[in-house]
Amino acid sequence: MNIYNRIRKRNDIPVVALGFFDGFHLGHKKIFEVLALNAGQQKKVAFTFKNHPDRLLGLDVKYILTNSERLEFFEKYGIEDVYFIEFTDEFMQMDKDRFIREILIEKLNAGLVVVGYDFTFGYKAEGNSEYLCRRLKDYGRQCIVIDPVTYNHQVVSSTLIRNLIMDGNIQLANSMLGYNFFINGIVKKGNRIGRKLGFPTLNIRFDKDKIIPKRGVYVTNTIIDSRRYISITNVGVNPTVSKTNSIKIETHVLDFEEKVYGKKIKLEFIDFIRDEKKFESLQDLKNQIEKDIAYVKDMLCRATVYRH
Ligand SMILES: Cc1cc2nc3c(=O)[nH]c(=O)nc-3n(C[C@H](O)[C@H](O)[C@H](O)COP(=O)(O)O)c2cc1C
Ligand SMILES: Nc1ncnc2c1ncn2[C@@H]1O[C@H](COP(=O)(O)OP(=O)(O)OP(=O)(O)O)[C@@H](O)[C@H]1O
């Protein structure tokens, strides 16, 4: 897959998907399926931004996917060329008709454009999908608008999924994503208290742009060296043993003893178990973690029984 930071004039007639695509959720997936179905021999292209337009408005948005993860998804969905463009003030002020004429027609030479029902573009988001299609047809180009994709009667969106993750509603977020929400990170050294408690943990250094589930304990999968392990993860400030308020993510991998400092691991969130609490003593914390682990094992046993 080619990644372009600048938009040069193309000589071919590609099919183009437009959007930011944070999360590559079920709605986004539909767009890429339709794009592939209608591509024929033409190149499959995505036009997206490196930075979310909301950031330029001063909002500190955290993302379901980091930029490199988002690029991996484009590749996975068969995109051959990605325009990964800086959203600047100049871009923000581009009039909707100029966007269509200069970017989509003159530069990208799009034969077909696929967007979702709520796609907006151009200065003050004055252009919508209906307008885009009408104008593209005037230029003799094709355009497809995807109807809203829903899950349990709710329209799937990146904003909704971010809110679900921040509320700890991991199961619903995962259903709308179509995969398990994950956090990639590097294992760093912790304070070694976990080991003393009898529950060694891998402390994860993660990307500051990544959205983090609310403080609490979660059932997770940990992928280390391409192998998947069951684990139990705490997202929080460890109030029982620490006074800082910086959020840490640490995971206790069941039946795992190896030293993996410095390794890249992936944590997949499966379900929320409970809120993080300040305990009176380390013994109380230890007792609670024992219960948390028993809960996870019990859940796994039941899952195994159902599978047979
Ligand atoms: C499954 C699990 C649940 C946890 N729950 C809490 C909690 O409710 N409150 C808390 O203060 N710390 C909690 N912790 C964090 C522990 O305080 C932390 O793992 C311990 O202090 C070790 O930290 P260290 O690896 O930096 O040494 C939990 C950790 C795990 C693995
Ligand atoms: N549920 C959906 N069904 C169909 N198309 C969708 C759906 N959600 C998003 N799209 C389309 O996917 C493209 C990328 O949209 P975008 O990245 O803004 O995602 P989003 O989920 O709409 O995000 P946000 O919550 O920030 O509005 C757009 O063309 C948009 O219309």
List the helices and strands and how they pair.
Elements: E1 2-4, E2 15-18, H1 26-37, E3 44-49, H2 53-56, H3 67-76, E4 81-85, H4 89-92, H5 96-107, E5 112-116, E6 120-121, E7 127-128, H6 129-138, E8 142-146, E9 150-151, E10 154-155, H7 158-166, H8 170-177, E11 182-188, H9 193-197, E12 202-206, E13 216-224, E14 227-236, E15 248-253, E16 264-274, H10 282-307
Parallel strand pairs: 1-4, 2-3, 2-5, 3-4, 5-8
Antiparallel strand pairs: 6-7, 9-10, 11-12, 11-16, 12-15, 13-14, 13-16, 14-15
Helix pairs in contact: 7-8
The protein binds flavin mononucleotide (FMN) and adenosine-5'-triphosphate.
Salient structural properties:
Elongation Factor Tu (Ef-tu), domain 3, 2 domains, 308 residues, six-stranded parallel beta sheet, alpha/beta, 27% strand, 32% helix, binds adenosine-5'-triphosphate, binds flavin mononucleotide, six-stranded antiparallel beta barrel, Rossmann fold
